[in-house]
Amino acid sequence: xxxxxxxxxxxxxxxxxxxxxxxxxxxxxxxxxxxxxxxxxxxxxxxxxxxxxxxxxxxxxxxxxxxxxxxxxxxxxxxxxxxxxxxxxxxxxxxxxxxxxxxx
Length: 104
Hints:
Elements: H1 3-19, E1 23-24, H2 25-32, H3 40-52, E2 56-63, E3 66-73, H4 75-99
Helix pairs in contact: 1-3, 1-4
């Protein structure tokens, strides 16, 4: 899979997990595991990039005596998911055209 395509896909997958409610790194990886493989070294740069883009927010809270960073999706992040879904619908139409050999 093209690395740029996969990068965008991973961003939306992370946002989709957070759409269900705030979460933290290890839990995000666990939630994604049945669908796509992602490591901590891949996840944390994604989270930083999404935060910088305003697609998610962070909040640190104590858990078992140490700080844990929680992430939550923003309205901008939800919009990014919706844009991805619309792009995917267009991609499916193009894919169907290609599979049919360019015939309508």
